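Protein 1 of 2
SEQ + STRUCT:
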Amino acid sequence: MRVVSHPILGKLKSNKKITIYVNDKQLEALEGDTIASALLANGIKVCRYTRKNHEPRGVFCAIGRCNDCLMIVDGIPNIRTCVTYAIDGMQIKTQVGNGIWEGLDEEF
């Protein structure tokens, strides 16, 4: 699912393909995609699971004001994927709870 022509924003500006890795799975994205829009275009709706009840969360506000789209990006937890651009080769993981820095054994 991808919007290629928007009544206000106009036509999609770039169709250059890049590769991102989500939970070690290779996915295609377009240059200029946010991580969240690339995930949605690939049918992925869950970004993280809550700390207490392990409930799934996905894109909610899409403007970087809430915490629902947080994921671990290139080893760094708590990245808001709705306002972070996808970069070729980026490693993205579903976050559980507050997230864990790669290389550390403790949760924040």
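Protein 2 of 2
SEQ + STRUCT:
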Amino acid sequence: MSPVAFGVTAGIAFGVIDVLLMIPLDHPDKRTAMIGAFLNRFAIGFLIPLVQTPIPLWLVGAMVGILISLPDAVITKAYIPILVIGLIGGIAIGWASGKWVA
């Protein structure tokens, strides 16, 4: 699979998973929060397979997941859940892109 196709697929999947995790949460503007979370996670999934470095892709995923998640974590002050989900998703997408991206 091409890196762009994998990135779009991974980004949509990660975004949907994160939005589903947010359903039970209470938020004053839930729709906006869910759209922002989807876009954040889509960016993580999309970027990881496109980054070319000499380090393992799971590590690229970890770094991208943390770096892209940091602004949302700072704004919401929900550091642990946002950074942990970004880290886990980033590692998983990095590992998967190492296996399936041509």
